[in-house]
Amino acid sequence: MQTKKTIEFFNNIPAKHCPECGDHIVEHAESYLMECDRCLTKRED
To answer: InterPro entries from the entry (predicted)?
Structure first.
């Protein structure tokens, strides 16, 4: 029963959006990036 609750939790997490352009960010495991790939490549560090 606990596994079902865990799956429901992860299925209900809202989508993440890029604060720069507003596009939906497709996350990968262990990703803490806030910007989308396109905005990250435009950035000059």
So the answer is: YhfH-like
